């Protein structure tokens, strides 16, 4: 995410980073999970079938290029003990726009905020 501007929201005493890019605003899921569960990882969150279903619904509303075929394969495995997927894999396989994994100074996972 080049040329992004960061701001910080304080929610119940917890700083949450927001990245503003030309593609929209993204709120840090990493910051939110760290505040709630400490060492909980995004990849663990993505294993949850309810999470995968929610992300699929979000993408179907906001992303005309969403790959439904790959989504169906991921959804069929979500919740299994052997299932694991990273944000990078999710984005590459489904052409998702709602999640972004970033590296660097403000590295983490961000969810896009939509105002439709």
Describe it:
By secondary structure, the protein is an alpha+beta fold. The protein has one domain (5-113). It is 39% helix and 26% strand. The chain has helices at 29-37, 42-45, 49-62, 68-77, 87-94, and strands at 5-11, 14-21, 24-28, 99-102, 108-113. The protein has a five-stranded antiparallel sheet with strand order 1-2-3-5-4. Helix 3 (49-62) packs antiparallel against helix 4. It is globular, with a radius of gyration of 14 Å. The protein starts with a strand and ends with a strand.
Shape: globular
Specify the number of helices.
5
Radius of gyration: 14 Å
Residue share in helix: 25-40%
Q: Walk across the major sheet and give the strand order.
A: 1-2-3-5-4
How many structural domains? 1
Q: What summary fits the major beta sheet?
A: 5 strands, antiparallel
Beta-strand percent range: 25-35%
Low-confidence stretches: none
* Topology, number of strands: 5
Distance between the termini: 22 Å
N to C succession of SSEs? EEEHHHHHEE
Structural class: alpha+beta
Residue-averaged pLDDT, rounded?
A: 82
Task: Give the helix/strand layout.
Layout: E1 5-11, E2 14-21, E3 24-28, H1 29-37, H2 42-45, H3 49-62, H4 68-77, H5 87-94, E4 99-102, E5 108-113
Helix pairs in contact: 3-4
């Amino acid at each position: 995410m080049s040329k992004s501007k960061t701001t910080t929201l304080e929610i119940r005493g917890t700083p949450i980073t927001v990245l503003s890019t030309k593609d929209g605003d993204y709120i840090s899921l990493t910051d939110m999970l760290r505040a709630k569960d400490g060492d909980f990882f995004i990849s663990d969150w993505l294993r949850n079938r309810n999470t995968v279903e929610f992300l699929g619904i979000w993408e179907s509303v906001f992303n005309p290029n969403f790959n439904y075929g790959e989504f169906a394969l991921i959804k069929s495995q979500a919740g299994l003990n052997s299932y694991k997927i990273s944000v990078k894999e999710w984005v590459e396989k489904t052409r998702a726009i709602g999640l972004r994994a970033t590296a660097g100074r403000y590295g983490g996972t961000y969810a896009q905020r939509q105002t439709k």
